[in-house]
Structures are given as C-alpha cells and as structure tokens.
Structure prediction request, 674 residues.
Amino acid sequence: MNEILQENKLTAFINNLSPTSLNFSNELLQSATISLLTNDFPTTRKEAWKYTRVGRIAAIKAAPKSAISSSPTPFTIDSNALTFVFENGEFIPSLSSAIIPKGISIKSLSFCDAEELSQIGKLAKVDGEIFTAMNVAYANDGLFIKIADHIILEQSIQITHILRGKNNVSNFRNYIHAGKFSKAHIIQGYFSQNATHCFSNVVTEIVTGENAFLTIDKIQYEEMGNFHVATEEVQQDKNSTFTINTLTLDGTLVRNNLTIGVTGVNCTTNLNGVYLLKENQHVDNHTIVDHCAPNCESHELYKGVIDDSATAVFNGKVFVRKDSQKINAFQSNANVLLSDSATMNSKPELEIYADDVKCSHGSTTGQLDDEAIFYLRARGISEKSARHLMVSAFIGDVLGKIENEKVLEFTHSILKDRFGWEF
Amino acid sequence: MIKIKNLHATIDGKEILKGLNLEVKAGEVHAIMGPNGAGKSTLASVLAGREEYEVTEGTVEFDGKNLLELDTEDRAREGLFLAFQYPIEIPGVSNVNFLRTALNEIREYKGEEQISAKDFMALVREKSALVELDAKLASRAVNEGFSGGEKKRNEIFQMAMLEPKLAILDETDSGLDIDALRIVAKGVNTLKSSENATIVITHYQRLLDYIIPDFVHVLYDGKIVKTGTKDLALELEERGYDWIKAEVEAK
Ligand SMILES: Nc1ncnc2c1ncn2[C@@H]1O[C@H](COP(=O)(O)OP(=O)(O)OP(=O)(O)O)[C@@H](O)[C@H]1O
Ligand SMILES: [Mg+2]
Prediction:
C-alpha cells in the first residue's frame, strides 16, 4: 500500500509547489510527504469522490509563488469584526486587525511558536487524504485562533481569504480553539478577484472546549474558473454547542469535507448548508457527524437550488457509536432543480450502533411547484417573481438559521447580484 | 366587461367546453350552477389562463381586450381574479409578502407608483377586518395549515386586496359554515360596485340568498344551456338537474 508511486498527476502537481516554510513537526511533515508519494488524485472509483472529478484541479500548472498585491479586498462582511486577510494563502498584516482583545490569541501561523504549531495536524489526518497532506507539506499560511477559557467575544472574528491571479494554489491552514465556557462567532469568507485557474485548498481544525459556544459562518464566493476544496475537522468536548453554516454561492468546483466528532456528552451540533448553483458549477458537500458520546443532539439541514447544467452532491453521514445512548440526530437534504439539465446526487446515511436513539434523515429533490407558480401568477405576479418567491421560500428556513445580521445581509446582496434574487 | 363567444376548450385532447357563450356587464352578478363535471372549474381555469387547457375555438373579450392572448399574470393585472375552488398551500411564501409583490406588479403594469409599506399595512388591516381574517393568518405562509374555511376566506381577502374588475368565485361557499358564508358574502357585497362584476360558481342556492345574482346560468356538458333569474336557482335546488338534461337532450 505504501509503495512509492512513479510520476503521477499528483507528483507532477506538487512539483510546481514550494514546500512550506512553517515549522510543523518533522513527524507531521513526514507523514504528509509519504501520503503524497503513495497516492494520486482521487478518481471517481473512490467512493468519497464518486461524483466529483478533480481532473481540472490536477491540470493546474501551479505558478511559482509571486509577491502578493496586498491591495484591499472589496469583500468585507463585517466591518466591525477582528479581521485577518490572506491573499493566495499569504497573510497581509496591513489589512488585518493589529489590536487583539485580551484573552484571545490570534496570529498567522507564520508567527506561531513550535508549541502552538504542534496543535496542527491532531484532528485532520494526512494518511490517504492527499488534499490534507498537500495542505501540510505545501502550506502557505493561515490563522491560529485560541480563545481562552471563559472569554465571551462580542466582536466577530473574520477570516478573509482572497484569490488573485492565474494558476495560483493556496494551501491555507487554520486552527481554532474555543476554550472552556467561551463564546465566539467566526466568519470565514473565501473570495477571488481577477482570479482564474486558482485553487484554494483549505484545512481548518476546530476544537470546541467544554461548555464552549462556537458559531462559524463560512461563505464561499470564489469566481467561476477557480477551484476549492475545504476540509474541516471539528472536535466537540462536553456540553459544547457548535454551529457551522456553509454558504456556497459561486465557484467552478467546490468540495467541502466537514467532519464533526462529538466526543463529549451533552453537546449540541448544528450544521446548515445552502448551495446555489448555476451554469456548469459543481458543488459537493460531504459531512460526517460522529456521535461518540451519549446525550447529544445534532441538527443538519442542507438545501440546494441548482440551475442550468450545474451539479450538486450531498453525502451526509451520521454515526451513532455503541453506548452513545440518548442521541437525537436529525438530517435533512432538500434540493430544487431549476432546469432540466441540472443534476443532484444526494445520499444521506445513518449508521446507528446504539439502541436508545432518535434519528431521522431525509432527502428530497424536485422542481418548483407549478401549481404554486400558477397561483402566484393568477394574482398578478410575473413568472420570474413567482419563481423568486418560491426559491426564497425554499431556502428561507436555512437562511433563517443564520443569526448574524452582517452575514445575512452579505448573503442577500450576493443573491441579488449573482442570481437576481431579491427577497 | 367580459364577452365569451363559442368557447371550446380541451384538456389532454378531451373537449370539456363545447361552445360556451356568456356575457357579463359591469355592475352585474352572475351565478353559474351545474352538475359535477359540467365544466364550471374548467371555464374558470381557461379564463385565468391555465396552460394545460387548449382553447380550440371561440373568443373572449375582456374589457375590450383579447383575453386569450394575455399571460396569466397580465389577465390578473387587467383586473381578472379567480378565487380557486381548491386554494393550494404554498409553504414559506408569506401571504402579505406575496400580496405586496402582486399589488406592486399590478401597479407597475398600470404605470402607477409602488405602494408604501405604511399604506400597504393599512390596506391589509382594513381588508382582513372586512373578511374577519385573523391578522396572524394574513401574515402566515399562503394557506399553510389553514382550515378549509380559512382558505376560502383568504381567497376573498386577496380579492379585497387586489380589487379586481371581474371576480370569479369557484365554489367559494363550499365548506363554509353559516357565519363564514355571511362574512364571505359581506366581503363580496362590500366590494361590489357599478364598475366591477362577479361570477359565482356554486352548487347551493343558500349563497345566493346573500349574494343576490342578476342572472343564474346552468352549465351542462360544456355549454350554458339555460339562463334565468335567481328563481332558477330555487327551482334547481328543488328539482335537481334531470329536467335540464332532458330538455337539452330533447333538442
Ligand atoms: N386532465 C384531464 N383529462 C381529461 N379530463 C379531465 C381532465 N381534467 C379534468 N377533466 C374533466 O373535465 C370535466 C370538467 O371538470 P370541471 O372541474 O370543470 O367540472 P366542474 O363543473 O367544476 O365540477 P364540480 O362541480 O365537481 O367542481 C370533468 O369531467 C373532469 O373529469
Ligand atoms: Mg369545479
């Protein structure tokens, strides 16, 4: 298995990348290197990549690292947030908040000491995971966030990543630790400006400590012509509440791997997703909620609106381990296809090894209700507005899960700009 | 107001309307009665522009315009309103939200200004009071979880909001208790003027005690086969439709 492969697409790809200058442990770097040397880009023969072809990513001839422009980003979701801006994976101090409130430690990985860097790689395994391995061995930079115990952050933390230029590959790495009894809200925004054939390969490890309350809003809005693979590995300690809202609003190919390991008792987990696709976009959400401890609940709601010849994939797994009793796990995926050539592949999966659990899952894919559209038109509403009303009604409940006003406002502005949906 | 001449319409190749004639003038109330399956709802659907139906012959002139050439939404904007026999539920779309969109699109069509939020809310209050529709229902998702009677009342509420020239009420009375019936009738009567007209499709004479029709028509086998005054409704209630069928067949 660990046989070193000859020249393949992956080795050709990484040959153009610059090895990371971050001081990760040798052990981590070594396992990443081995993983890369013994694997290739996944093909559709691999179950987890059955519907998503990464050939177009593999075909990128990564440009040599060039100086970043450091020009201001036109994308600011929350102007009052503690903001950290990265361009093609590199930190831009001049655009980032300099004053950090007491009780939290936030810095780019390039400013982290060995002790801090030793946290990296504990949750996101590199073995067999080439995107995670690449993210280690060729890491550009990323953000390290540590919120001390009992700290309640009023201000949001905003990570803004922007792609610029052509053939740029960003291996972007984040670490988030919410201490015991802490509370924080983090916005992750992925954007691009005049970018094409760029690839964001993002890995974020998240530890939600005992009784912590952590909310992440992730917005993916990279232009068509760019590619994005995100891997989030989350660990929830007891009594914690973790919420992640994933909004995928643009991008040629977007793959999200979200894995939440609920290792403590009495946890609440919320994962919501909205993906709105048109043209020939491809968006793939793979989620795993792994209930390893009793008395927890998880709520998963992913909704997609797919137009033109776009394709979306949803694969949601919920595991309830043996002895994880009293689990309430709900999962739902619903999709609307706006065109005959739009495609959805949805696969919800439940694996339950405990007996005292309440779980449900469901998946629906359909068209907008013609009867409803007729009803609305019969009241004087144009077909276009009627469809907007129906789409807005459809995604309304997921958008309703987003509590942060700034994020909602921003989302609505994109819905209007990109889709002409105003509601 | 509306002139229907020799209207033939088919669905899935089956002819349902077979040469229907009807003229309704401003200020009038017409009742259409007739046995199940006669084509009453089909007529309403064809007038509203439901695309499943194909008009194979005949003309419909609405306020001087060729109605059959207009899209559904433009028919509504010209002042045609259909209260559906079976109003559907539209989860997630709020009643008032969609009515504001409708009102504004109708106004835009007529080259009028948009309604202000304040005026709109005042209108909602006034009209929901008229049909005694709970303000909470008015702002809920369209018909979602409404009782049968509430759905019908919501249709009349929408009619009151949009103030159409011609309203077609397709069995708005069925499923209503006596109080609701009175309320719906009050709504219709309050909105009645010399400028507008109403077509009520019903199976029950009792509605016509509240909404007094100028004419009562019998629609049978895709045609209007008999026209009379409100006494005809009483007669139908007593005698049923067999004698009408016999009359038609005798011809
Ligand atoms: N898709 C269809 N294909 C064939 N026949 C149809 C179709 N849809 C409706 N019909 C028929 O058209 C006829 C007229 O139906 P319509 O609903 O207009 O009757 P109605 O007069 O409103 O009856 P009711 O009093 O029961 O409401 C019925 O015989 C019905 O079965
Ligand atoms: Mg009918």
The helical segments of chain A are 9-15, 26-37, 55-58, 114-117, 130-137, 370-377, 383-399, 405-419. The longest strand of chain A covers residues 183-196. Residues B 40-41, 85, 170-171 surround magnesium ion (ligand 2) (CB under 6 Å). The interface with chain B takes residues 369, 371-372, 374-383, 385, 389-390, 392-394, 396-397 of chain A (CB under 8 Å).
